[in-house]
Amino acid sequence: MATSSHLDAKIPDGPLDTKWTKFRSSVPLVNPSNKRRIEVIVVGTGLAGASAAASLAELGYQVKAFCFQDSPRRAHSIAAQGGINAAKNYQNDGDSIYRLFYDTIKGGDYRSREANVYRLSEVSGSIIDQCVAQGVPFAREYGGLLSNRSFGGVQVQRTFYAAGQTGQQLLLGAYSALQRQVGIGAVKMYTRHEMLDVVNIDGKCRGIIVRNLVTGELERHSAHAVLLCTGGYGNVFYLSTNAMGCNVTAAWRAHKRGAYFGNPCFTQIHPTCIPVSGDHQSKLTLMSESLRNDGRIWVPKKKDDNRPGNDIPEEERDYYLERRYPAFGNLVPRDIASRAAKERCDAGYGVGPSKMAVYLDYAAAIERYGRGEVNKNNIENATPELIQQLGKAVVKEKYGNLFDMYKQITGEDPYEVPMRIYPAVHYTMGGLWVDYNLMTTVPGLYALGEANFSDHGANRLGASALMQGLADGYFVIPYTIGAYLAGEIRTGAISTEHEEFAKVEAEVQGKIKKLLTIQGKTSPETFHRKLGKIMWDKCGMARNEQGLKEAIAEIQALRKEFWKDVKVMGEENTFNPELDKANRVADFLELGELMCHDALDRNESCGGHFREEYQTEEGEALRDDENFMYVSAWEFKDESNWELHKEELVYDNIKIAQRSYK
């Protein structure tokens, strides 16, 4: 591990609030007739990919879009529940572009890039306008304005939502825009195709190698630029809120072809997930952060209290977030809420059969809403039963599908008893390093949405993932990619017969054959589960030097065992999900090691990266701004060998301070 050069993020000059406007006014353009001769590949069709593909095709580029699902509508963006942030200030509660910018920088514990975050805040309002125009059914207030609710880390209501299925509704909007372009022939859609490598020619990204997941055939596809919109890598932990198909393969193969990986150790633990029920589980289910808007989080004041939640009287409950953080209460950022839950459970105050859970209680909200309905309808001498009935109806309207999901999974009715929740891996702030234009260190190769590192620092505020994905696809990449493609108008069509395509395809095929010929005794799933346990135990909610060093050695040993003992059933040139899984696990085994190296190298605590050696007397994250105010960008050299490059972070527009939500 060596430290090398400092990175240039290509941030435009000038005041923060005019950078993006000035950039858009001066960036090189490609005229419409030339756009028709330029091909762009988009890998991934979630919010970032679908919006980018639709926008670029609308501009006139020839677009090829790839997803490994059977339809773009099954992209994991569909799983987002709670909402999308925007600085519209409909509530008239003091929100602004600057406040959204500041909250995002502070929420990320001062480890994100100022210029990108301000641009994100600037375009946030346009995202809402775009989605409303597409027919996204956002919730509305009585007067017709779009409704907002609260999310963690802020003191204003800026989160737009569609019940508890915001991601699904937003994706349907982006999918409609994408399908329109497919219908007119501007986008060629490749479903059930997985990208397994990128092809660089003369220092520029010129295409990809994909596997047809139905036939098993490898295919070559060329383009003048490639956009990776492939999501995050949370499934390196095995158990996470991500769909089981989510993986790091596209980004990781790009990393091994020269794209630096930024801040890989910055992973987010979400505080409101349904607790693990046993070793049989293969994924976890998220309860939206929006539930913290009205719910109250607590544990019993007495250790090992086995009484049902409803039997514990008010005076024997510890509303620990409200006690520790009076200014923000239950709405502290995710990393703080998660660590606080872990601390209470580790101290013996956990609830439920595993004692690794805390309560999220809606009794007070139901009572409050019920009394409001009674007053609104001029009902005198309302019975407690009627108040409860009316209150539950309001909660059902706001959060009904989430409550139904909880009941189906746990068998408990959250309208009657408190939910039990515990933190779980949810999102990855790290990703491929990109400059202001969203280009990686490989010219012509871009990364959008969760696949890049750029906007969230060491901790993402809730409801900002959907915002970033759509901002990158609809409002950023259509401008920034033109600066690069303006130099490509004389390039002409790129032949897939080039020797580099043949070489990379042969390497991909060689890896597949190797996986199939090992014929060991252990399934890819077993290796994935073992890796996940190492990562969760030693690079999860808390890390320390000894544990990280142990994890690196254990992962290296597990990877050697994988390449000696993995058993992949089936054949090469056919439908083979077990082979697909093995390919993805092989990449997770390499990524996991880099994550531990990155966590070991960063001798500070910040956001979701909590090194136990670096904390305040009150147990909060203790940053080291003097030595670690930079983005870690890792260059792949060879197995277990990376070189560290640094992008220094400069804050000219905000005051750096220790985060406080008290």
UniProtKB/TrEMBL annotation:
Catalytic activity: a quinone + succinate = fumarate + a quinol
Segments forming domain Fumarate reductase/succinate dehydrogenase flavoprotein-like C-terminal: 528-661
Principal localisation: membrane
InterPro entries in the record: FAD-dep_OxRdtase_2_FAD-bd, FAD/NAD-bd_sf, Fum_R/Succ_DH_flav-like_C_sf, Fum_Rdtase/Succ_DH_flav-like_C, SdhA/FrdA/AprA, Succ_DH/Fum_Rdt_flav_su, Succ_DH/fumarate_Rdtase_cat_sf
Cofactor dependency: FAD
GO MF terms held by the record: electron transfer activity; flavin adenine dinucleotide binding; succinate dehydrogenase (quinone) activity
Keywords: Cell membrane, Electron transport, FAD, Flavoprotein, Membrane, Oxidoreductase, Transport
Known EC number: 1.3.5.1
Gene Ontology biological process terms from the UniProt entry: anaerobic respiration
EC class of the enzyme, as a word: oxidoreductase
Gene Ontology cellular-component annotations: plasma membrane
Residue intervals of the FAD-dependent oxidoreductase 2 FAD-binding domain: 40-466
Pfam hit, one: Succ_DH_flav_C
Gene3D superfamilies in UniProt: FAD/NAD(P)-binding domain (3.50.50.60), Fumarate reductase/succinate dehydrogenase flavoprotein-like, C-terminal domain (1.20.58.100), Succinate dehydrogenase/fumarate reductase flavoprotein, catalytic domain (3.90.700.10)
Keyword Membrane on entry: yes
Top-level taxon in the UniProt lineage: Bacteria
Catalytic residues identified in the record: 334 (proton acceptor)
Family that this chain belongs to: Belongs to the FAD-dependent oxidoreductase 2 family. FRD/SDH subfamily.
NCBIfam families given in the database record: PRK07573.1, sdhA_Bsu
Protein name as annotated: succinate dehydrogenase
Species of the source: Arundinibacter roseus
